[in-house]
Every structure is written in structure tokens, then in C-alpha cells.
Amino acid sequence: MNQRRFVAAVIPLAVAGLVLSACSSNKNSGGQGGSSGGKPVFKIGYEGPLSGGNAQLGLNMKYAVQLAINEANAKGDLPFTLQYTEADDQGSGDKSPAAAQQLIDDKQVIAVVGPAFSGATKAAEPKFADANLATVSPSATSPLLATQGWKTFFRVVADDNAQGPADADYAVKKLGITNIFAIDDASAYGQPLEKAFEDEAKKNGAQVTHQSVPGTTQCQAGSGNTQQYPAVAQTIKASGAQLVFYAGYYCDFALLAKALHQAGYTGKLFSDDGSLDPKYIEQAGADVAEGTYISCACADLSNDPKAQKFAADFKKLAGFPISVYSAEAYDATNTIIAVLKELGASATRAKVVEKLRTVDYQGITKEVKFQPNGNISGNAVYIYQVQGGKIVSLGLAGS
Amino acid sequence: MCLTNHFWDYFVPGIANGFLYALIALGYTLVYGVLQLINFAHSEVFMSGGFGGLFVINWAIADRHPHGLSSVWFVLIGIIAGAVTGGVVAFVLERVAYRPLRRRHAPKLAFLISAIGMSYFLYNLAGKEFGRDARTMKPPFTVTPSKPLFTIFGASVNLYDAVIALSAIIMLVLLDRLVQNTRLGQGIRAVAQDADTAALMGVNIDRVISQTFVIGGLLGGAAGFLFGLGTAGVSYTMGFTPGLKAFTAAVLGGIGNIRGAMLGGLLLGVVENLASSCFGASWVDVVAFYILVLVLLVRPMGLLGERLGRSA
Questions:
Q1: Helix or strand or coil: residue A300?
Q2: Is the pLDDT of residue A11 over 70?
């Protein structure tokens, strides 16, 4: 009896051990000198949230990265074979270093698209910099990231120093708002964005009240409690604000929007690219979300003829239409592929980092050229609005 | 200043939060009463109730836009569905994670680990099965926020808060009656006072413990539905913070004490909202737990003391 139990416990362990060792030996034999059909294999890694409350943003990018890789391989003119690999960081700074390490340890990974979120990038980039592994983020917009001296950091999106002030100008000058309540989610992404917004709005003569409201555990965005929003809504209502600016992500923004609605707040809502997702409308409810302004440094490609083929191919691969940052992820991946093409079969991590500094690639969203600190050249910010249950582009903020 | 200005505006939603905490806290306190252990998987019973209520009510409402009397029925259906789901999960939980350990006279720490293990298991299972994104609940009633239900001292009470508070009050009164006046309640109190003696007197301890879990599960599951109703959404991670807060409320009121859990829940809900009004949302936990520590320094057994068995 006891022996049978022992055997029952040991067999699965032994099998697991075999499988694990098989996996690791595979990895070894396919290591640096590995090849398929005589050509070397280069992997492009992707780091972003693939599970957790903000997974949708991560998936928007994941399939774009895969699509770019598939297309490059299908052309058949590459002196190497590209492969896709991924690491899930749940968008969290806590999980991000381990995800980064996973990509760094895979010696075939030659460059990385991501990390997707600013907090995750802040936590992981020192590791990437040590490993001299280039990262091109489609979506991390915290201005801090470009000031750390990380040689491996690049992004194809304008930072919040562009988004925050553009939003403030739009709210005050275009919408004529004079009394604003600004909220950040106490994250590495929300706080600087709110600060940039607040400074510019005050400069424009508006009155701004600020409160930091931690993202909730329900949304996996912080330590906050979902039950905090009714009280916050009361504070906002009592302030007499005409517009609420929320610097954070859609999951918590939806909770706040609903609490505001229930408290009887009737002013305007305004948020950032973290809220530019149809899930915001679904979770807040169409009547609550109606009229919400949302900004993004990402361009709306739905009416752009250049992007129609991309949009169709993406939908075929992913099973859902392109959304926030899909096109930027596609451009980031293609920028890396363009660099690899120039370097040919002898590409290394270090060479990719060097070559990215001087790259000039015409993507579907914009011309990709990097400043010395890794930021993209140029800083267009677009404004969107929820109309009839859909997110509609209102064009450039400054126009 | 902050306590005078708009005091009732913050107080009212605080009460609604407090009733939710109280409903969940009872699950902790009842189980503690009979087993002297903290059921850390209770937050997942709450979450399961949220999903149970969500699926049933979304299915029942379908494409309708309920109003008037039909709204009452839909809320009732949701509460019952949430409660039943919570009760079933709690029952299975006790059978799978606690009873085998009790049979083997496992040390208290083993129960704790078993509970934490079940908590991880359940919420990851829910995340896998129901998706990682929040699910949206169809509203069982239509609200016009500009026209509040009624006002108390100038503070408007919206329908959500009213429904949550009213449902909770009914359940709390029923529970209090049940524990005070029924055979089952007598059994629970007897086991809480002295399990061995109760067994000698002919009380079936296993059955009482099982029933205690189910009662806690019914209340927690109903709270899960009400929580989903208030925020119009349910997600697999929704249990974590409310669970922790409700546990705090139970300790604040005196763990093992039923009326203590109710008092602790209401107090915590109100204190949190007032703290938010005075210091801002990022200070809520700092203030709330500061007060908890102060209370425990003065009254280590909690506000009403630890006494489920003794004339609760």
C-alpha cells in the first residue's frame, strides 16, 4: 500500500524530469550555432502582458509581432530564419525582470519587441542593458525611460511628455474647460503623465485638483481596493470639476467612470492611451463611456489605405481586429527585421543595438528614426472619442 | 473640516461598502468560531458567488431592460444564485481541504496552507475558465443618476447602495435569528463553546462544521453578487482585497463574534470612505489599518470580544 503510493508519486515526477531534460537539451543543441536548412536562426522576443487584467493590450501587440515575422520569412529572401518567442510579464514591474531574464537566457534571441508597459520596462531594462539586448517598445510612454542612459532602449511611440501637454491643451483650449480634476493610478505610467498634464493645464490658466488613486488588485494594476471609487467620485463631485482626467489603464478607468456615473457626475471624462481599448466601453457600459475623450500617440489606421492589408492579415492571424498599438508593434518588429537584413547572417545582439541608432525605416504609422536617447523622432498625439459605443478618431490634438 | 464638509456624502457609500465587508466577514468569523482557524479561501467563495450570480442573471435578463417589480425579482434571482454558488463552493472546500486534515489531526498550520492552496487553485481556475478580463453584469434595474432614490441629511442615496444595504440587512437579521433561535444555531454555538463536550452531548460535529461553512458560503456568495452589481463587473481577482478587508473587519469586531463582524464591517467601510475624503484615496489603507492597530492595542480581543459561543 505504502509502496504503491510511493510509486504513484514518483512516476509523474520522473516523467516530468524526463520532459524537462528533453526540453533543455533541445535548447542546447539548437543554441548559438544552431541552424535550420543551413541558415542561422534568429529569434525576435516579445515581452508584454499575455495574462492578467491588461492582457488585451498585450495580445494586440503579440499577433502584430508574429505577423511581421511570418511575412518576412514567407518572402524567402532572408539569409537567416526568423522565429518568434514570448515572455509574459502581466504588465507588472514585479514579474518583468523574470520575463526579461527568460528572453536574455535564450541565446538565439537577437532583439526584443517590448516591454509593453512603462513600469515593466523600468524594472527590466537594466537587465537588457547588461545583456546588450536591444528592446524596441511599441507602447511604453513614460518619459523617465529615456533618461536612464540605457543603450538598449528604443521606442516607436512618442512619450508622455508629448501626450500629457497635448491632452491639457486640448482640454483647456479646445474644449474650454477651466476646472479639472486629475487622477493618476500611482503607477510609473500614470504619475508622470498626470504631472505633465497638470503642469500644462495650469500654465493654460485652468484650475487643477490632483489626487493619486492606486490601481486596484481587481485590475491587477496596484494595491488599491475596488471599493475606493465611490468616495473618490464624491470628492470629484464636490470639487465641481467640469472634466476628469484619468492617467492610468482602462480597467480601473472603467470602475471610476461607473462610480462617477452612480454618484451623479455629469461632466466630461478624458483619459490616455492606456484606456484606448473597446474593453473600456464594455466594462464601463456604453451609456457611461459615451462622450469620453481618449488620447494616444498612436495613429488611427482604420481609414488609412496603407494599413488595410495589415489589418486584414492581422485579423486572419489573431481572430480579432487590430487595436491599440498593433500597428506600432508591427512597425517595431519590422524595424528590427530591417536592421537584421542589413546585418545579414552575422548579426549579433551588440550589432543590432548599434545599427538601431542609425536606422531609418518607413513604417505604416510613421517614419521610424530614433533620437540618441532611444525616443522616436517627432511626437504626434491623436484624440479619440467614444461615440455611439465606438472609439472614433477626432484627428491630431493640435489641429 | 473634511469631516463636516460633505460628511454624509461619504458616509452613505461607506455604509454600503461596510455591509459588503460585514457579509464576507461573517464567513471568516463563523468558521473561526467552530474551528478556531482562518479560512483564507473564503475570498474565493466570494468570487465564485460573483460569477454564479453574474452567469445566472445575465442569462435570465437576456435582452430585457428590467424595471419596476421585475427588477426586484432579478436582484433576488442574482442573490440566490450567488448564495447557492458560494454555499456549494464552501461545502466542497470543507470536504476537500479541511475534513481530511481534521480526520488526521493535522496541526493548525496545515489547515492554513491548505486554505491558501485552495485559494490559489480556485482563483487561477476561475481565471482560466472565465477569462482574465472582467465580465460585465447586465443591470437588473435602470438608474438615472441625476435623480437619486432619496436623500439622507442632504446626501443622495443611489439605487445600488440602497439595494446592497437592504439585502445585507435582511440577511444579517436572518443569520442572527438562525444562530440565536434554531437547533442548528444551538449546535453552532455549542461546538464553538466546547467541541468535545458538544460531541458528548450528541451534537454531530462534522455536520455542524459543514453547515457552518455553507452558511458562511451563502452569505459570502450573495456578497459576491452584490459586489458585482455595484461595480457592474466580476473578475477572477475580485476576491483578494475585499477578502482581506473583511478579515480585518472580523478581527476589528472580535473574531468569532457574529455581531462583532457586522460592526467591524460597517466601521471599516465608513472609516475608509471618510479617510478618502480627508486624506485622499492613496491614504485609505494607511489610515484604516492605523485605526485597526489602535483598536487592537486598547482592546486586543476586538471591539466586542471573542465570544461566538457565549451569548453572541
A1: coil
A2: no
Report which of residues A397 and A283 the model is more confident about. Answer: A283
pLDDT value at position B9? 84
In the predicted model, is pLDDT for residue A325 greater than 50?
yes
* pLDDT confidence tier of residue A64, bands split at 50, 70 and 90: very high
Asked if the model's pLDDT at residue A35 lies above 70, the reply is no
Confidence of residue B247 (pLDDT cuts 50, 70, 90): very high
* Paired residues of A246 in beta bridges: A183, A271
Q: Please give the Cα distance from A353 to A102 (Å, whole number).
A: 19
Give the chain A residue nearest B227 (alpha carbons): A227
CATH number at residue A67: 3.40.50.2300
pLDDT band at B36 (very low <50, low <70, confident <90, very high): confident
Set of cell numbers at residue B236: 477572477
CB contact under 8 A, A227 and B277: no
H or E stretch covering A362: strand A361-362
Q: Are residues A270 and A225 in the same domain?
A: yes
Instruction: Provide, as residue numbers in chain B, all residues whose Cβ is less than 8 Å from the Cβ of A211.
Output: 280-282
Express each pLDDT in A196-227 by its tens digit: 999 999 999 999 999 999 888 888 777 788 88
The pLDDT of residue A316 is above 50: yes
Query: Taking every pair of C-alpha atoms in chain B, what is the biggest distance, in angstroms?
Result: 61
A132/A205 same-domain check: no
The residue of chain A nearest to residue B284, with distances taken between CA atoms, is: A228
- pTM for this model (two decimals): 0.74
Using the beta-carbon criterion (under 8 Å), do B16 and A223 form an inter-chain contact? no
Do the domain assignments include residue A26?
no
| A chain contacts of residue B16, beta-carbon cutoff 8 Å | 230
CA pair distance B123, B47, nearest whole angstrom: 8
- Give every CB contact of residue A282 below 8 A, 6+ residues apart in sequence: B136
* pLDDT tens digits for range A355-385: 999 999 998 888 899 999 999 886 678 899 9
Amino acid code (one letter) for A230: P
* B158 in A contact zone (CB under 8 Å): yes
Cα A4 to Cα A1, A7, A11, B86, B93: the distances in Å are 5, 5, 11, 37, 27
Cα B174 to Cα B79: distance, rounded to the nearest angstrom = 15
CB contacts of A229 in chain B (<8 Å) are: 231
**Interface membership of B16 toward A (CB under 8 Å):** yes
Of A105-114, A141-150, A229-238, B256-265, where does the model show the most confidence?
A105-114
Task: Give me the sign of the Cα torsion angle A20, A26, A28, A30.
Answer: negative
Do residue B5 and residue A261 have CB atoms under 8 angstroms apart?
no
Average pLDDT over residues A38-45: 91
Rounded to a whole number, what is the distance in Å from the CA of A347 to chain B's nearest CA?
Answer: 38
The pLDDT value given to residue B284: 87
Interface subset of B 254-293, CB within 8 angstroms of A: 269, 272-273, 276-277, 280-282, 284-285
Same domain, A237 and A184: yes
- Structural domains in chain A (count): 2
Measured CA distances, A229 to A245, A294, A381, B138, B162 (Å): 15, 20, 29, 20, 17
The answer to whether A135 and A115 are in contact (CB under 8 A) is yes
CB-CB under 8 Å, B276 with A235 = yes
The domain in which residue A320 lies consists of 39-158+303-368
One domain, residues A126 and A262 = no
Q: Given A224, A231, A262, which is nearest B158 (Cβ)?
A: A262
Q: Which residues of A touch B242 (CB under 8 A)?
A: 225-227
- Please enumerate residues of A whose Cβ is less than 8 A from a Cβ of B: 51-53, 55-56, 186, 211-214, 216-220, 223-232, 234-235, 237-238, 251, 254-255, 258-259, 261-266, 279, 282-283, 285
- In chain A, which residues have their Cβ closer than 8 Å to the Cβ of B158? 262-264
